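User: Predict the complex.
Assistant: Input components as received:
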Amino acid sequence: MIRDVKINSYQFLVLVILFTIGTSILTVPSALATDAKQDAWLAAIFGTGIGLLVIWLFITIALWFPNLTYVQLLEKLFGKWVGKAFSALFVLMSLIYASELLYYFGLFLNIHMMPSTPMVVLSILLAGVMVMGVRLGLETFARTAEILIVVFFVIFFILVAFISPEMKFENIQPVYEMGTKKIVQSSIFYVVVSSVDAVVLLMIFPSFINKMKQVKKSFLLGNLIGGIVIIVITFLSVSVFGVEKTAGEIYPSYELTKRINIGNFVQRIEGLMASLWVITLYFKTTLYFYASVLGMAQILNLKDYRPLTLPLGMIAVVLSLVIYPNVMYQQHWDSTTGNSLTLSIGLFLPLLMVVVYAIRKRTKKKEIEINE
Amino acid sequence: MSFFRKKSNSKIHSNSISTSQMMKTSSTNELKTNLQENIQIIKDSLGKSSDIIIREIRIGKEETIKAGIIYTDGLTDTDSLQNFILETLMLDIKGTELQKKVSPEQNLISVLKDFAMTVGEIKELTNFEELFSGLLSGDTILLIDGYAQGLIISNRQWVERGVTESTAQMVVRGPREGFSENLRVNTALVRRKIKDPNLWMESKVIGKRTKTNVSMMYINGIVNDKTVKEVRLRLDKIDIDGILESGNIEELIQDAPLSPFPTVFNTERPDIVAAALLEGRIAILVDGTPFVLIVPALFTQFFQSSEDYYQRADIASLIRLLRFFAFTIALLAPAFFIAITTFHHVMLPPALLISLAAQREGVPFPAFVEAIIMEVTFEILREAGVRMPRNIGSAMSIVGAFVIGTAAVEAGIISAAMVIVVSITAISSFVSPTYDLAISVRMLRFGFMALAASFGLVGITIGLIALLLHLCSLRSFGVPYMSPVAPFNLPDQEDTFIRLPRWKMFTRPSLINQQNIVRQQDSASAKPEPPKNKEYEGV
Amino acid sequence: MIKSIGILLIAAAILWIEVPPLLEKKYKKELLVFSILLAIGVGLSITLGFEKPIPNPLDLLTIIFKPLDDVISHLLK
Amino acid sequence: MKKCMFVLLILSLFLTGCWDRRELNELGITLALGIDKVEDEYQVTAQVVVPSEISSKTSTGRSPVTLFQATGETVYEALRKITKISPRKIYPGHLRTLVLGEDLAEEGIAESLDFLSRDWEFRSDFFVVIAKDMTAAEVLNVTTTIENIPANKMFNTLKTSEASWAATNAFILDELIANLTSDGKEAVLTGIIVTGEQEMGSSKQNVESITPSARIEYNGLAVFKKDKLVGWLTEIDGRRYNAIVNEVQNTVTAISCPEEGKATLEIIQFDSKMKGKMNKGKPEVDINIKVKGNVGEVECQINLNDPETIVELEKNTEKEMEERIKSTIETVQKQYKSDIFGFGNAIHRSNPKEWKKIKEQWDEEFPEMTANVKVDVKLVHTGTVGNSFLEEIEGR
């Protein structure tokens, strides 16, 4: 149906890493520190662990039909109309999240760098490259990711190496004060943002990937590496700033870069470091957008998704300006309805699919075999 | 030459007036038996071009056979014409009974060809198409009255530049020779380096009017056959009246005509062509220009100088990394400066901030305009420097340096820091071993400056993402332009950002050719070692 | 006013880019979906340009997911 | 097609413009800021650099900085009001020093700091100091030598004296706020004063003589309880405070010789560990200090060649330091009742559960608690000479 593109497992790994880090690198340290206090980094570790389980669930589901995307899978399992309804919700979610990230981008810049630039301009700026990326196709996009992940990790290691002298271990003591229950509870937000959201990757995995065998590993490994980055960032935030400031800042990891000062020479480089967030944010946004565009094309059985990119990009820009009236609404929504939305599409729906699959397996066995 | 055959092709027919004229005068394509008639047709077709010499002679024992010798003055080697054709025909074979040698198997033409002509390459011809193409390429035509046939005697020789040092791609160490304008000399230069029977050459004539000879060169067995097919296809598709330089071909066969980046490599140096052939690439040589095209071309290839392979590997690697760095500077330095001084003041160290602010006191333009003025001034100076007669050059550079460097700053129109930034940018853009990439960078720099002026570093980052997306979407003859970086390929990294020593380079670039990948056997013995026996010790 | 002209210009550019290839390939359905989406996009943008309120889809989702929210937040307490 | 996208992108950029662009010569580069409380209103004083006076080319010999002052109901309002007098908007991204007036400190500094931590242009890596017995404006109104920008002088003096004398404490805004918000630690800030004739301070003549009539000097540590100034520690106590909280990098300290006279010890390595514990339901703190030092100066009759002497010196030093530190702790406990040492945090780290119980009554617990101080001194070098030449001078 859609042009036959394949990316290799390394490229997929890169995409998963960038997706997992995505916005988490900006928002998660603060969110975790609010509840788990100085054990925020432990919560990140727990979150990564739980996240891996979720990813494992995705892999299991996806590998039933290695040639189908999530949208097609839903249709196959639930039948035409129910499946399309679920798919529509999925597409809507992806589109909303794409615009949410456009909003994040604008918000981040408005707060930290350019307060008087109108948000619409910033949204259009990111949406422009986002649409460009999706139009050029997954292959191009994945290759770009391959290059930019190197940039990302170089900057990230610079950040870690240069900020580590500022760490104070008193800030993370006493370790494990909050207890397991509290820590796991507070990690839910992180699991949702980093792993459950990864359900949109099922639009790529496994149908657009060659060499099936390594790819399972790539998905898990990518999530793990992304998780480690988040754990490191959280640990650094808490140990450098202490709990109160980490929880109080909207983007603590950006504040971190302001603290870099090596011999009064390497300092004031936060502007450069901002490209770290722009890169990860860009890829997460584009993956959401790709999922929504491709999903919509597949629901409507279109031959090509490309014509949809520009109009949908336009809609995404408008949505990014409308969905959050202010920052407080965003934070509240993210921690309540946003969570439920993601969880229902990304966790409960897959679980339901497992049930349906198990029930229909016997009755549909023949049909499935024919289809394959 | 094909237009004679494609007479029915209305498009071509209507396009070329002289062709139709020629058609009128020669009712048929074939040569006539009557010599006078033939000569008349030639005269009519070529107008009264004064460089076409038509000489009618009589040969044979009784001087009964009328013959015509036609050649183009200036393209033909008159010495050999004199010595080997005219003398032979008019003097040496005077005593021979030519008619007696004529037999049912051999007419007079073939007799002359086999018996009389003391010239290497000789061909029979039967139609005007061949006649004109040979004549205008510098061959001598021999026509005999009574026969609808003739001979093309190849004794071309025209004034040409010898093999000289290449000027566009200089090296300190490495062969000095560069290609010349003569296709044959050029192929010989390559052939001399690769004495492999598998070095194949395919010739084509492109250009309806210029009839330029174009050769495709590749090593059979290393090259990817699909690529050869693709190149052949694209060359055949060219339908244009004239090819004057390989640049014309490049524009007509490249993958991304609208991209600012070159997807075809060009070089003036035979050693680069030979190395490319050994990697499995295809060279396209065009008659009349020393610049040879190489496909597929990859982005990283433009950072590689042939000298990298003649120097020590460690130095070469460092210099190569330096080139990438210089490329970044040439692309981004002014944009970066604008972004930092107008958006991210925070990033400047306090002392520098104050000193830059002090410099800017009284400068009337915003940093962006200032940078544009300086960049444009520099581009004008550079272009003037290239086109100007050489002896005015030094005067010009003094004026340029003085105007930009000193007077503008003294007058307070431009801040001193901006002059430094623009100079660094300019110098960096010359580091690239190939000119092509420097040109694309020149254009893109302005885009980045505009982005920086409106969005600061974020604009630059977004611009870079867009640029990378574009680069990654490019392909050069089927090979992703950014390979082996994206898609990443570990074995090919031996010769991308760094160059491993020769004894570590075991494979050819794997995306360019899938067959015969091994350059040398992967073995420890490849690494040179001092001899183990003691005999040499103490010598 | 300038805003809506800008939006219409962008829409025109999008049409100019997208429609010819679609017509060439005779993708009728794609063209239909494309037109509908573009109309929605332009409509929303212009509404926004005139600073008229646009209903927030998130509010709707909040109402839909309210029960689930309560369950989850109860679990986390 | 791809090109079209690119063109559109570029076009849209040119259509937009640049909202946040500010040229360097539009910035009022502020290196020092002072906040005072004047009759219920905040008075903000900004020390703004005059760039053309800094560059040697265009300098006309006028003052390199200038002061702008405005009052407002809030700090932000006052700062913005400065635009009424200043031709350029205040740009605080390179702020080096924030001076708080004593009156403000006595009323509480927290309210005035919120803006500084909230506004995006502040980088929160500037030092915060308190003007002792005077207003911040008065401190900022003094010209300085060597560094001709007073803000830089204040910044660098504080940094070097913290590194090599250790009586002052260079707190950046982040650390200050962390201390203010922490349950188990109270804030301190270094004091700053103007000595000499203040009236002369603001003129250029001040720096034209070898001995300026007015100088800026750091003096003492301000002790806070919550966000209110409760008193001052002397310089000596300040050094001991730094010793307890492990802020000493390098300093010299005079010690008494076994018999009479003094010797000076240069401390090259200093490490202080604070450990909290609960002893029979009562909080207790162990402070273990490890010192590595050189004999820097000898002004008495001792035989340095004898290893025994070194051991004796070490013992003496240990004892002296322990006593001094204990007395400082006692002063703070009795006089100010403010846990500036972070004993509460130490308990929290080691006994999180018990800490929860005593957290509420920490103000009562702190003055009563015991602190065990143990100092371990190691002497390594004796400088470039062995025994002092003092021994050779006969008749002493």
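The longest helix of chain B spans residues 435-473.
Let me know if you want any component modeled separately.
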